[in-house]
Amino acid sequence: MTTTTTKRCEDNHAGENLPDPKTACIFLSDYAACLLGCGATCIRIEKNVRRMAERWELLSEMTILPSHIHMTVWNKDRSHSYSNIVRLRHTGISFNINTQLSKLSWAIADNKTDFEEARRTYREITCTRPANKWMVWLLASLANMSFCRLFGGDFTAMLTVLAGTLAGYRLKQIMLEDGLDARFVFFCCAFFSSVIGSAGYVFQWGETPDVALATSVLYLIPGIPYINSVSDLLDGHYISSFSRLMNAIVLTACLSAGLCGGLLLMNIKWL
Question: What angle in degrees, to the nearest 10, is found between the helix axes of 223-234 and 42-55?
């Protein structure tokens, strides 16, 4: 029975145009760099790449570094190999691209997509347009306003946070589109939002101006890098984990500096 099953598998692969190690390595390394850039964890990248390599009857080893992917692919008997180093693709965190790339790996593994079709699909995925920025702007502002309510803010505080987030998030979009450094962007946006969030103190609005001020900058918290850092740590990717953790800490420090700058400007002594 085992011999018959093996023969059937061999017959199924006989007519296929499976990629050679060099072609597969170039594709897989670029795929992994794109996944890393859009916010995937190291364990997801490893599983997706291994899944596709096994389908193509190849062996793969990958080293995930903070800014690079080092990929090596062998043929089945390890008589031929190819290595490639690809720089991280800064596509920005995107759950949509992350999900589509994972679906592509399963489509390849389930024999629903051949290699040439996989390359075409990959190019289409990487050209996916980002979500509507106006919708993201509005939903992020409403979400931050909800955080204010969650922490006990009254209606006036919620409106103050909404105004601060609308202004700060739009500033963030504009500055990032202009290619400015993310750390500087976080500082400026936190400063801008905290100044607006301090309106409750300045004009004596509402009963919870402290909640409004505290939650006015929550939309800037780099939650995904923190979560990915813990995931990579548990999976043993210590270099990647440390890199993501330090990046999140630096962004949080810039956020805090902007908040403190806003407090100093508005002469608010928050004890």
Answer: 60
